[in-house]
Write a structure and sequence with these properties.
single chain, mainly alpha, Helicase, Ruva Protein, domain 3, 7 helices, about 60% helix, about 5% strand, globular
Length: about 120
């Protein structure tokens, strides 16, 4: 699935600090914790808790955030649909990483077991 240039520019310029509180709110509304969210983000990106909090409070863009990440080798096991698009079919690497995060957060918010979310 190809993403149009306008969308790619908009997403790459989004500040992680503006998205992170929305992710926290989403999982907390469903009875999960910020710590669980951070565990999921850490699994995906390789960032530790301090690095996640740094990005969550600085002006880091999504592009910069994922450029510094060391993606988990099991990300290829993340399958499914986010916003009507299969994550495994997304062609743009940045957009695919963003959708991987979206998919994992959705699974967390839906109450899926952490072992399954982390593809253990």
């Amino acid at each position: 699935m190809k993403t149009d240039e306008k969308t790619l520019k908009r997403v790459s310029a989004m500040k992680f600090s503006s998205v992170y509180p929305l992710l926290v709110n989403k999982v907390e509304r469903k009875g999960r914790t910020r710590e669980e969210l951070d565990q999921v983000i850490s699994w995906l990106t390789g960032f530790d808790e301090h690095q996640i909090q740094f990005h969550a409070t600085s002006g880091t863009t999504y592009e910069e955030f994922f450029a510094g990440a060391r993606l988990n080798p099991n990300t290829s096991l993340i399958k499914g649909v986010v916003c009507g698009v299969r994550v495994e079919e997304i062609e743009d690497p940045l957009m695919q990483k963003v959708r991987y995060l979206d998919k994992l957060v959705d699974e967390l918010a839906r109450g899926k077991a952490m072992e399954k979310i982390l593809r253990s």
